[in-house]
Every structure is written in C-alpha cells, then in structure tokens.
Amino acid sequence: MAAARSETPSRRPTISDVARRAGVSTGTVSRYLNGGRWVSAESSEAVTRAIRETGYVANATARRLRTGRSGTVAFVVDEPPARFFEDPNFESLVIEVGQALAARDQTMVLLLAGDEDSAERAEIFLRTSGVDGAVTASAQPAHHLFERIQAVGIPLVNVGSPAGLEDRVAFVAADDREGARRMAEHLVEQGAREIAVIAGPEHTPGGFLRPEAFIEAIGSATVEGAVPRVVDVQHGDYSVASGAEAMRAILRAHPGVDALFAANDRMARGAIEVLQAEGLSVPGDVLVGGFDDSAGAATEKPSLTTVRQDFRRIAVELVDALGKQIDGGVRTRVVVPVRLVVRDSTTRP
After folding, report:
1. Vertex 288, ends 287 and 292: CA angle to 5°?
2. What is the pLDDT of residues 98-133, one digit of tens each?
3. In this predicted model, what pLDDT tens digit does every residue of 14-34 receive, in sequence order?
4. 12-67 — its CATH code?
5. Lowest CB count within 10 Å: 103, 186, 219, 306, which one?
6. Cβ neighbours of 41 (radius 10 Å)
7. CB-based burial of residue 279 (10 Å sphere; 0-12 exposed, 13-18 middle, 19+ buried)?
8. Which residues form the signal peptide (predicted)?
C-alpha cells in the first residue's frame, strides 16, 4: 500500500508578491513598511490592500533592530468609555487604523482620555512606554491633549482639523466644507427654504467647519421664489439624545422649519425621532440630512441622506502621515474627499 503523500507547505508571501499584487515596485513596498516616506496615498492604499490579500507578514524583529523603533502606535481618543463605545464612528476608525498599522507590522494601543485623570494617565503611558507616535481623536480643549503629547516629544497626527492648531498639529480630515456644501445644495434643490442646523461641539469640525460651510452655501444659493435661509443653529454633542434636545428647541422657536442638517448621523436620528413624535413626517414635512454615513444610516427608517466619510482611506492616510513624521519629521495635512449619499430622508414623492 502506497504511503500517503504529504502536502507541500504553502510558500510564505514575500515583498515581491505584495509588489506584484499592488502593481508597484518592491522599493515602494519596502519604503511603505519602513514608515511610508515618499510613498503616495494611492500606492499606500494599494500596498495595504495587497498585504491583506496575500497574507504577508514582515520580519518584525529584524526591522525593529534595524530602525530602533518599538513598532507600537498609541490611538488616543479623548472621550469617556460610554461615549466611545456608543459611537460607531470610533469603532470604524479603530478597526481601520488597526488594520492599516498591522499591514506595516505595527501594533496599536488604544487609550481613552475622557477626563483629566485619564488624560494624565495617558500622558504618563506615552512618556514611559516607548511608543513611536500617536493618533489622536476628539481632543477636548480642557484636557490639553495636543500639548501633553507634544511635551512628551513623540510624533502625532489628529483625526480631523484641530481648531486653531492647524499650523502646529498634523491632521487627516474628511472634506468637511465640501460635504456640507453639497448637502446645502441638495436640500435647496429639494425645496428647503426654512432650514435649521444641529452642529457638534464648537471645538470640533462638525461644530465649526461643517455649519460654517453649510450656512455660506445656503446664503449663496440662487432660486426662484422664497429665498432659502438658515433660521436656527443649535449645538449638540454628537449623541442621539443631544440631537433630540436640539430639535425640540428648534421646533419651539421655528415651528415652520422644513429642513434640517445635522453634523452627524446620530444627531440626525435623534431629530427624526422628535419630528415623528410631533406628528411630522420625514421627508414629507421636514427634510433631514446627516454626516458620516455611519452604521444604520442605510437601514433605519427612514434611510438617511448623509455625507459619506471614507474611514478606510482616512486610516491609511493617518498611518502614512504618522510614518512620514516618525521617519523624517514631516508634518502633513491631508483632506480626504467625501460623497453625498441621497436616501429616503430627503426624497419627496
């Protein structure tokens, strides 16, 4: 009886395999794995995808001995645990940034710094852990997160435009202004004339960039008949509850409002709940648009017209920007395109 033939072990993927799959040179892959300097965003995205598809794993020990780096990056989110876990955008960002780092054989450590004590603990960790750099999100001015990290002396890149610190802090952001402008044009085209805005906290892009661009676009709209105008701006904290509270305030002051732009999808959903409880239909009586295209936007009723952020592209750009800063001290500012996604909440029969 013939002996069973043993299967030949699968060959371990190489840099050459990754390069062929991505359609780039092996040198480009090597530069990507060693911090991403002189690698375009398009090539970075292609290499990230190729590494995931081929299953390539770099020799971490050899690379770390060569570079003198730990291979660890901290993702610091300046929110308390309850807020972090209830916001699907944080989940998307953490997953995508983690995958983009893993493609470069780097490890991510998640830190929540949602109060003064947590911010101090995060600072101590960053001083003592030997991380190569930090990605920051939702920085609260009162916690001085940027100043703390810069005092530690490690590179950092922020998710979103850091209000007033754009010349001092590297960042990767969705095109907040363009997204808000497109939403304004869409609502006006759908007949909106008495329009309200629910903005985010004032120190965040959704609290100043998005409402500012939206209001400018409404003010420059050219239509026949009644001139569209923004009748009210309320600020929320990106939660469903804050969107509901802001919508109640808007209806008390402006019961004839016929459209709403919320700076994120969760506040838009809270506003829709209040409108429906008041016997108003969406979109029949009030058009509602959000921002993010987060989980549930397409499936909850009514489905939500929104501005889609490409979280995967943002994550790749964040890791690329951090690599450039770690490798060569290059501080970059990157704006990622967005797309208007039209659904039921602004589509009248």
Report:
1. 150
2. 999 988 888 899 999 888 888 888 888 888 888 899
3. 888 888 999 998 888 877 876
4. 1.10.260.40
5. 219
6. 16
7. exposed
8. none
